[in-house]
Write a structure and sequence with these properties.
Elements: H1 10-15, E1 18-21, E2 26-29, E3 32-33, E4 36-37, E5 43-46, E6 52-54, H2 55-64, E7 71-74, E8 87-90, H3 92-97, E9 110-115, E10 119-129, E11 132-139, H4 142-157
Antiparallel strand pairs: 1-2, 2-3, 4-5, 5-6, 7-8, 9-10, 10-11
Length: 164
């Protein structure tokens, strides 16, 4: 993971004519919205030549006066929603936990286990925290495996737990 470039101070941001509205999540320059949305959904602003900053990191600076943590999580999973109520500090594991399912089964934390010439035998549930992956068991249905994953995710990640 690449370390983010330090965000300019609030005084420097204001000298550029920037302001942040925490209710809309929009950065304005002299009253006009600025920034563009990247293909990955995140919004960035440019300050001078080759100085691009993610809006959620600039918003963090405006609201706290401090540099944003390495991971700023968008609670609703929408990287363009930079309203202050949608942003929160997170560890890498918490930020990854607050994501959509990427599994071929359609259930987060569930994989198919194939044996005997590629025939489906059962479903495995597992959860990852940091670099440690923990096996939760084998189940006959993806729903049963997903229920085990959900219980473990709620216990492990609390408010960052996302089941789907």
């Amino acid at each position: 993971m690449r370390k983010a470039k330090p965000t300019p101070s609030i005084a420097e941001l204001e000298a550029w004519g920037l302001a942040y509205d925490p209710t809309t999540g929009v950065i304005t320059k002299h009253g006009h919205p600025v920034g563009y949305r990247r293909r990955d959904g995140y919004t960035t602003i440019s300050l001078g030549y080759n100085n691009r900053f993610l809006v959620h990191r600039v918003a963090w600076k405006f609201m706290t006066g401090c540099e944003a943590p390495d991971d700023v999580d968008h609670h609703d999973l929408d990287p363009s929603n930079n309203r202050w109520g949608n942003l929160r500090s997170a560890t890498y594991s918490q930020s990854r936990q607050n994501s959509r399912a990427r599994s071929r089964t359609g259930f987060k934390g569930v994989t198919r286990v194939l044996r005997n010439k590629g025939k489906l035998v059962y479903f495995s549930a597992q959860i990852q925290h940091g670099r440690e992956r923990r096996h939760l068991g084998y189940f006959k249905t993806p729903e049963e495996a997903h229920a085990a994953y959900c219980a473990a995710a709620d216990k492990e990640f609390g408010e960052f737990s996302r089941h789907g």
